[in-house]
Write a structure and sequence with these properties.
- 41% of the residues lie in helices and 28% in strands.
- With 894 residues, it is an alpha+beta fold.
- The strands form seven sheets. A five-stranded antiparallel sheet has the order 2-1-5-4-3, sandwiched between helices. A five-stranded antiparallel sheet has the order 7-6-10-9-8, with helices on both faces. A five-stranded antiparallel sheet has the order 12-11-15-14-13, sandwiched between helices.
- The protein is elongated.
- The N and C termini lie far apart (181 Å).
Length: 894
């Protein structure tokens, strides 16, 4: 008994005694304590159910019901340790009385490892079977004669051939593989059977339905115990999608390379059209289409064809070029209009069938193209161009190509935008540099106080080279002290500091040139912030002449005022509204009014009798514009006394607008009295006329002198020209009076002596030193009465003045011919030159010319004819009938 107890305690396997009636555990050995984790005392508090998982209890009772008295070996059970761990055991028991209990001795063998191993093997077999049946790879097993012994379900799906049809079939008899592939497979199988490492084989099979399927074959050999090849196992993988993905990836990579190459090639160009031409050529080469073209935005509603084409065969595709030139595109109209509206690439197949969409096809000409696709390109968020491409074949739309063209569109838009910005910047830079160098003012760029750049005008102002200016301060070219006593460097630094603080400066400054010459300038300083720092731009304007002109103008104005105020005849100046601006002392003496009394008032309200108000000349002077107004009037003094005066009126216009008017009043009361007293005496009349001519000549000479002085000092060239023309006309009349004054015959004027003086004076006034003008006079001895002599002289003056002023522009030499003769009681006055002739728009200019207006009016006054010819220079010819009417009854003096 002791031996049995010792064996129980030291047995390596867990052992326990339990009461068959209660199933309570009566005793356990040490191995049980170690295995289950309970102590010996804890075990005695348990029964057989407590050491099993709940789902095993029913099975426990079923086993206990079928125990016999002898040795019983049970099947595999699952037991539970104290910590809850489940493990597999094999239990052996037999009846064993213990201390009066009807008990059994149980031996427990832990077989968890064996059970787990068996389960793993079973699972592996199940998985293998599942893989064989459900594997995406088709499995084909061959015997040593390469006959099919197993054909999986996946093999049926992949090939279209059922297993019962393929089992036993030799490889050589299969329609599945081509002859070339069969040879490769047989060779590969031989290599594998011979012990060479298995290699996969990529090939194609022909599905029972006729389609080609890309596959990859993996082969291995099953050998017997002697190492002989017994079976050949092949797994066939469908790689169609992989091949398609590879092709797609290859195409995408090719497209990416194309986009990168296109971006690189186009991005390196500097001109917009060059970039578009390169892009069209590259795209045509990439897609292998023979025609590419660009439409360009003309305005908001129209795109027009450009000369940017790629033509693989220019002669073959000339028709589409010609049609495109005739076809503009509007957004929303036709195929290209849809591209513009949708702002995305579009594809059009079979152009012939879509004439209403592809407008150029609708024009009725047969085109050697069938498919077109196009895409828009945006530059700065606006579609500026549309690129279109043509194929001769009917091509289905290629989504990948359309997708890559959308990328090209975006890339090309950014490139074109950069090129356009670069072109605009280059153009702006060229314009700025051109303006900078050709500016009428000098320009200095300063950083700090030093000059870092200057234009050529500054070299001219400082009388030195650019290299001598750069690096210097502006104070090097300034005298030590400025007008007013301030030191140049101190005052200059103040201006620079204010400019840098954000306040632009404009001031006058004395500069000294490299040659030591002082010049007056006006300086404008502005702060400029650039990427590399803060600069000051100084615009230097030479105002030396302006300052001198201001001084001269002051002196001239003072001189004019003194001459005006001290003139020996009454003079008045009125504004455009006929209101008095200035009168001289003689006017005050003649009419009794002071300047303060008349300033700002209409002069006619003070000195013109009511009955003569309508005939009185007044500003704006349209009724006397174009003629020399000298008439006799009666005017009223401040005391109400009438006074006979000879009135000369001179309106002054600039660009068709009245500026001012001058009135000259010559008191002829004494002459009028003398005329009345000498009405019955011819001698006294001749004396009176001589005196009138003399005084008129003198007064007109004074007027001429005033106008000439005004012309010399007038800053406005247009006003100076107008005053100069008036001066010549007054001088023309003055010469008539001078000639009459020196002759014994007051009724007629000898043209030959008068014309020579008139031409000589005109030459002095209007000719320039840089022109050599030869004047030829051919004037017959013709006597004209004064009523025809004055208008004839004025017309001749206009002819000659026009010739001197305009005929020889751009020429150094010239001939001017003046011919006057009488034939059949008609006087011919001809002035011709070998100058540049009349401008093409002469008739338009003629209507706006005061000189031509005067010529036309004087020709009508003479009842004459005017002929103008512009071949080989210019010829003016006046023809009028010689009249003998004399006296004040002449219509000229009315």
């Amino acid at each position: 008994m002791e031996n049995e107890a010792l064996l129980f305690e030291r047995h390596p396997n867990p052992m326990l005694l339990y009461d068959m009636d209660t199933l309570n555990i009566l005793k356990v050995n040490h191995a049980a304590v170690q295995k289950y984790g309970y102590s010996a005392d804890e075990f005695t508090q348990l029964n057989l159910e407590d050491i099993r998982p709940e789902e095993e209890i029913e099975r426990l009772h079923h086993t206990l019901e079928h125990l016999n008295e002898g040795l019983n070996s049970s099947r595999v059970f699952r037991h539970k340790k104290k910590d809850g761990e489940i493990f597999h055991v094999q239990v052996t028991s037999h009846a064993f009385p213990y201390k009066g209990y009807r008990s059994r001795l149980v031996s427990v063998l832990d077989i968890s490892k064996e059970v787990n191993a068996r389960m793993e093997v079973e699972e592996a077999y199940r998985e293998l079977d599942h893989l064989i049946r459900e594997n995406p790879l088709a499995m084909i097993k061959w015997n040593s004669r390469l006959e099919v012994v197993e054909w999986s379900k996946r093999a049926e799906e992949l090939s279209g051939y059922p297993g019962d049809e393929m089992l036993g079939k030799r490889l050589s008899a299969m329609d599945l593989f081509s002859s070339e592939v069969k040879q490769k497979l047989e060779q590969r199988f031989r290599e594998v059977k011979g012990g060479r490492p298995a290699r996969q084989l990529d090939t194609r099979i022909t599905h029972r339905g006729g389609t080609q399927v890309d596959i990859r074959i993996h082969a291995s050999v099953l050998r017997d115990e002697e190492g002989e090849a017994r079976m050949l196992l092949t797994f066939v993988e469908d790689i169609s999608q992989e091949k398609q993905a590879e092709q797609k990836l290859s195409r995408q990579n090719e497209m990416i390379r194309f986009v990168n190459e296109l971006s690189s090639s186009v991005g390196n160009l500097n001109h917009y059209d060059q970039a578009l031409k390169m892009a069209v050529k590259k795209i045509c080469a990439f897609i292998d289409w023979p025609v590419g073209h660009v439409y360009q935005r003309a305005n908001a509603q129209r795109f027009e064809s450009t000369d940017i084409w790629y033509l693989k065969d220019p002669d073959r595709y000339q028709a589409i070029v010609d049609l495109s030139k005739e076809t503009d595109v509007e957004p929303g109209k036709g195929f290209l209009g849809a591209v513009i509206n949708r702002e995305q690439p579009l594809w059009l197949k079979n152009l012939e069938a879509h004439k209403e969409t592809f407008i150029r096809q609708e024009l009725g000409k047969s085109l050697p193209v069938s498919t077109c696709f196009a895409f828009p390109v945006k530059v700065q968020d606006e579609i500026t161009v549309v690129l279109e491409f043509f194929s001769e074949h009917s091509v289905e739309m290629q989504p990948e190509l359309m997708e890559i063209m959308a990328t090209v569109e975006s890339q090309l838009g950014r490139i074109l935008e950069r090129i356009r910005v670069r072109e605009e910047l280059e153009l702006s830079e060229r314009k700025y540099r051109k303006l900078y160098e050709r500016a009428n003012d000098g320009i200095l760029i300063l950083k700090g106080r030093n000059i870092v750049d200057c234009n050529s005008k500054m070299e001219e102002l400082f009388e030195c080279s650019r290299d001598e200016i750069i690096g210097q301060t502006p104070f090097v070219f300034s005298p030590a002290v400025q007008p007013g006593g301030s030191k140049s460097d101190r005052k200059g630094r103040q201006y620079l500091r204010k400019t840098l603080n954000g306040s632009p400066q404009v001031f006058e400054w004395k500069h000294v040139t490299k040659k030591g010459r002082l010049i007056d300038t006006e300086i404008s300083l502005n702060k400029i912030v650039l990427q590399d720092g803060v600069y000051i731009q100084a615009i230097v304007r030479d105002i030396t002449r302006h300052k001198q002109a201001e001084q001269d103008l002051k002196r001239s104005e003072e001189l004019f005022r003194n001459l005006f105020l001290r003139a020996p005849v009454a003079m008045i100046m009125v504004d455009r509204d006929n209101q008095v601006k200035m009168i001289n002392r003689k006017f005050e003496q003649l009419f009794g009014y002071t300047e303060d009394e008349l300033a700002g008032e209409d002069i006619d309200d003070f000195i013109v009798p009511e009955e003569e108000a309508a005939a009185a000349p007044k500003m704006p002077g349209q009724e006397i514009l174009g003629e020399d107004f000298i008439k006799e009037f009666t005017r009223i003094t401040k005391n109400g006394d009438p006074v006979d005066v000879l009135v000369g009126a001179i309106p002054v216009y600039l660009e068709g607008e009245p500026l001012a008017g001058f009135g000259i009043y010559i008191d002829i009361s004494d002459q009028k009295n003398v005329q009345r007293k000498l009405q019955n005496s011819l001698k006294e009349k001749e004396i009176l006329l001589k005196e009138i001519h003399h005084r008129v000549k003198n007064n007109l000479a004074i007027t001429s002198a005033l106008l000439q002085l005004q012309v010399l000092n007038e800053k406005n060239e247009d006003v100076a020209d107008i005053l100069g023309d008036s001066l010549l006309r007054i001088k023309t009349m003055a010469l008539v009076h001078e000639t009459l004054y020196k002759t014994e015959n007051f009724a007629h004027l000898k043209l030959s002596s008068y014309i020579e003086k008139l031409i000589g004076f005109n030459n002095e006034v209007t000719s320039t030193a840089d022109k050599d003008i030869e004047i030829n006079l051919e004037v017959e001895d013709i006597n004209l009465n004064i009523n025809q002599a004055i208008p004839c002289a004025l017309v001749l003056n206009e002819f000659v003045t026009n010739a001197f002023k305009y005929a020889f522009e751009g020429k150094k030499r010239g001939n001017l011919n003046v011919r006057i003769w009488e034939k059949n009681c008609k006087v011919h006055v001809v002035v011709d030159d070998n100058g540049i002739g009349l401008p093409d728009n002469f008739e338009e200019l003629r209507r706006a010319s005061m000189g031509m207006t005067l010529i036309d009016q004087l020709t009508d006054q003479l009842e004459g004819e005017l002929h103008i010819d512009s071949e080989n220079g210019t010829t003016f010819e006046l023809i009028f009938e010689k009249m003998s009417t004399t006296g004040s009854s002449s219509h000229f003096l009315q």
